């Protein structure tokens, strides 16, 4: 009934109902000249409202006051009630719902609107944020909670990175460690190198990495991890790989592993990037054996690269690798720089051949 009253009064006064709000429940004893100033002082949003008229509601014994704003009413900035002198006044707009959303939801939406305001955005910017046509006008109405959930979900999908569980799941090669290998099973060392590399490149928390690692194990290999988890339920991936390394790798001391790393040199015809990748496998083995700490990893790697490169010294020169040993890059950054430099040199050689030809 009250919602229809807003539209009926606006139609009789030739007003746009979307720019108007109705405040029923104003006591009969309340002075008409004081209604507009009180509404203006209640909130900053209503500071420029204009009282257009009032009508007496016989059933309630109170007045309903019609006010007009300069622009379409934003329901999120209008409170449901206004505390009068002796009573509480209800505020109705054309976007009001017979069953209003819970107060907690309205409060959340108001906080969201305040955040948008700080970012220079308003409700009218929502179509553009959702990839819709901003030229198509939208009717100003109080959105339902379901509408907001859908709209905000679409907006967040554009700016929030996907959760690791929603992305492609990492599937590792099977390993049993049993006396009779299962079909397609690799020897332990190739399996360990591949698994370590895959887990290092997978950018998810350690707890997420442990799950596919355990799922790829069967037989004696799985028994090793089960026993480990009994004594250390929160064991990390590095601890799992170390336990498997101790159980299944050929007996090899830390000094032997580190010696192999230090003796690894670039071979003739081998690209620098290929040498670094081969060296990285030896370095990871040395770390697993405790010959090199994780904190020493980047510096140890770069020192050996500088020592082990025997060909293509221009890469050492152009990337200033000797000068960077006190502040070494990570493996991913280093291999990226080396590959890019190799591509530049290859492109230069092709260009030179084309020019001379």
Can you give a write-up of this model?
This protein has 357 residues and is an alpha+beta fold. 49% of the residues lie in helices and 9% in strands. The chain is built from 14 helices and six strands. The protein has a four-stranded antiparallel beta sheet with strand order 2-3-1-6, covered by helices on one side. Strands 4-5 form a two-stranded antiparallel ribbon. α8 (219-231) crosses α9 (237-248), α10 (254-262) packs antiparallel against α11 and α11 crosses α12 (297-308). The chain is elongated and about 100 Å long. Residues 97-101, 136-142 and 158-167 have low confidence and may be disordered.
Strand-helix topology:
Blueprint: H1 2-12, E1 20-27, H2 32-42, E2 50-57, E3 62-68, E4 81-83, E5 88-90, E6 92-93, H3 103-118, H4 126-129, H5 145-159, H6 188-201, H7 206-215, H8 219-231, H9 237-248, H10 254-262, H11 272-288, H12 297-308, H13 313-318, H14 331-356
Antiparallel strand pairs: 1-3, 1-6, 2-3, 4-5
Radius of gyration from CA coordinates: 36 Å
The shape, in one word, is elongated
Structural class given helices, strands, pairing? alpha+beta
The largest sheet has its strands arranged as 2-3-1-6
Percent of residues in beta strands: 5-15%
Report mean pLDDT, rounded to a whole number.
Answer: 78
Low-confidence stretches: 97-101, 136-142, 158-167
How many beta-strand runs?
Answer: 6
**Helical residues, percent:** 40-55%
Number of helices in the DSSP assignment: 14
Order of secondary-structure elements: HEHEEEEEHHHHHHHHHHHH
N→C terminal distance: 90 Å
Most strands sheet: 4 strands, antiparallel
